[in-house]
Please model this.
Amino acid sequence: MKMKRIEATIQTDKVSAVSEAIKDKVGGFTILDGDGRGSGKRHTIRSGRGTGTIEAEYNKVSTVTTIVDDAQVESIASAIADAASTGNSGDGIIVVSKVSIALRILHLKRVVLKPSNHFLLSKKVHIII
Model:
């Protein structure tokens, strides 16, 4: 079974809508919050005693990551895009990549990926085979 990793960087205020849209379609997903810089408009922040303003260097973003069967990619990516879209610049980006190896950390063994038992690996994990 071929598996793909879907990683969607979206506006933080759209996380609930995206979560609701995919929760019954995927075995699980991870949400990470952070700062990002893309094509979206930056927020204006008051400075000093409220007399001046500055533009924020970064926007608050969230990344939703899941691993799905190859046949589900279009459906899940469309559900994420529909839920995250505002029609404005800076809605986000969806990246799909191939998953070639998964490692169950508990047993340090390779696992057969199924949509209901996905495992995410950090680039910091070293696999010795």
User: Anything to note?
Assistant: The longest strand covers residues 59-69. Residues 3-110 form a domain with the Alpha-Beta Plaits fold (CATH 3.30.70.120). Residues 115-129 have pLDDT under 50 and may be disordered. The longest helix spans residues 73-84.
